[in-house]
Amino acid sequence: MAELKTKPTDRSVAAFLEGLADESRRKDCREILRIMKRVTGKQPRMWGPSIVGFGSHHYRYESGREGDWFLTGFSPRKRDLTLYVMAGFKRHDALMAKLGKYKTGKACLYLGKLEDVDTKVLEELVSASVEHIRKTST
Questions:
Q1: Number of folded domains in the chain?
Q2: Which residues are paired to 67 by β-bridges?
Q3: What is the DSSP letter of 36?
Q4: Spatial separation of the C-alpha atoms in residues 6 and 21, rounded to whole Å
Q5: Comparing 138 with 93, which gets the higher pLDDT?
Q6: Containing domain of residue 124, as a range?
Q7: Is residue 6 domain-resident?
C-alpha cells in the first residue's frame, strides 16, 4: 500500500502564515487558526509544506487502507482558502444553507475570503466535523 506523502513536519506555522504575500489572506488564516484551535483544543502543526492541521486520528477504510490524518485543517491556496472538513458535508445541510458563499469537494470547503461566510456557522460546521471524526476514528 502506498504511503501518504503529506505528514506532520516541524516547520513553523507562524512563519508559514507570515510568509503569505497577501495581508488579507494572512488575516483570514489567523482567524481560521483561532477557530480551529478553539474547536479542537489542539495546537496547529504543519502537515507537508502548506497545510495547517490540528490534532490527529487514525482512520481505516473498508478497503483496508489506513493511516493517520489531522482532525481538521486549512491551507491558503492560490485561488481559495481550503478548509478540510473531514466528515464531509452531507449531514450538515442546515449549516451549509446558512454558511454563505462557498464551494465544496468531498471533504474540502473552498472559500474565496472569510468575509463571504458566517464565521459562527463555520465554527459550528468545523466543530460538528471534529466531533464526528473523534467518535468514528479507530
A1: 1
A2: 59
A3: H
A4: 23
A5: 93
A6: 13-136
A7: no
* Farthest CA pair distance, the chain: 43
Global pTM?
0.91
- Euclidean distance between CA atoms 92 and 78, whole angstroms: 27
Q: All 3 cell numbers of residue 95?
A: 449549516
pLDDT category of residue 51 using cuts at 50, 70 and 90: very high
DSSP tag of 59: E
The answer to whether position 79 is within a domain reads: yes
Nearest-angstrom CA–CA distance, 19 and 133: 31
Instruction: Tell me 85's DSSP state.
Output: E
Question: What is the mean predicted confidence (pLDDT) over 30-57?
Answer: 96
* Cell numbers given for 100: 454563505
Cβ neighbours for 102, distance < 8 A, ≥ 6 positions apart:
96, 109, 110, 111, 116, 117
Tell me if 72 sits within 8 A of 39, measured CB to CB. Answer: yes
CATH code, domain with 83: 3.90.1150.200
Q: Span 46-63, mean pLDDT?
A: 88
Is residue 123 situated within a structural domain? yes
Indicate if the pLDDT at residue 6 is higher than 90. no
Q: Is residue 67 in a domain?
A: yes
